[in-house]
Amino acid sequence: MSYKIFTASDFIHELRNNLPQVKHSLQLFIAEHDFYAISDQILDSLSSNITLDIVISSLNDRKSLRLVNLFNRIVQFGGSVYWKVDHNLHQNGVHFMIIDKTFIINKTDYYSGQSDEEKVKHLNSLFDGFRSDSSEIHLLTGPISIKLEVDNTFVDKGQYVNIHWNVDNAHEISLLGIMDNLEKKGKIELLIKEDIVIKLEARNREHKISKQVIIKVVKEPVVDFSVEALDPFLQEYITLRGVGLNHDEYYAFYNQRIKLSWSVSGLGNFSEATLGELPLVGEHVSTLSQLILFEFLFHSIYGSIKKRIILQPVEDEVKKEEINKPISKVTRLAKIFSNFKKILD
User: What are residue 292's DSSP bridge partners?
Assistant: First the structure.
């Protein structure tokens, strides 16, 4: 029996050229990127008559879905695939192909000073050791489980959030648009500049599923109020102007209908001491028969905003005049504003 071994100046070229010579068995100890380069030729040479064992030399345990799909085809033809993490072997290029136990193509002449027969026997023994020390690839099938969490879903612009994930039964895990080839369990810190959808996608041989969370950039809330009084003759609401130090005092006539409207930009809880819990956008209509004090409170992640509104009734002199002398709508409107101006001044 003759033995042959040589160190290839172009490893990939020599592997491609010699793969068709395999008759009985093929053993490969090879880096992932080199395996990709010759994967088509390996698949072409597959047959039920050839024993195929491949040990992938890697720096970590991450496996892409493309790689898993290739493993799947090899396993379907009766081959075996193993995964070995060894930084020293990988960095020194200790990779080789063994054809029919007698012919070896070596990437580097790492083991020198021996006869070809001794080298071939040594590398055969070395390959068996690599295979026994490696993790055999078992293709994952069935349901995938995803747990995806962030520590805060409402943040200020420029704030960092921590993203945690834990995935079971998947070969390939990615945070779309952020990071690929993730470990099954991990955490990253992400700077949030605008509203964003964090989507994690996981795949195995049969399934692809995803899970997402939405992170919103929250703006500081603003609470706007509007106070209007209904003129019973014009049947129109007139906007009142707030007076006082905080512009929170409003004057209208006795028994006049008052519409108080509000709009809150932001997320939180909005309430009034008497009215209770309120929607963020709404209105309240009442009849002004006595002084009314509203005390509003908006509570959010930024803190609390308090707003006081006082409605004070006054005598309607215009109404008294109309009992004796009808007047036009225009004249009445002018007198109403004139009277309000006197009160405010």
Answer: 311
In the chain, how many domains are there?
A: 3
What CATH number corresponds to the domain at position 127? 3.30.870.10
Are residues 77 and 154 part of one domain?
no
What is the token pair recorded at 233? 């003759």
Segment 168-201, tens digit of pLDDT:
988 888 999 898 888 889 999 999 988 899 999 9
Report the predicted TM-score, pTM, of the whole model to 2 decimal places.
0.48
Reading the block at residue 120, the tokens are 């071939």
CA 183 to chain centre: 16
pLDDT in tens, 29-40: 999 889 999 988
Judgement on whether residues 204 and 239 belong to the same structural domain of the protein: no
300 shares a domain with 233: yes
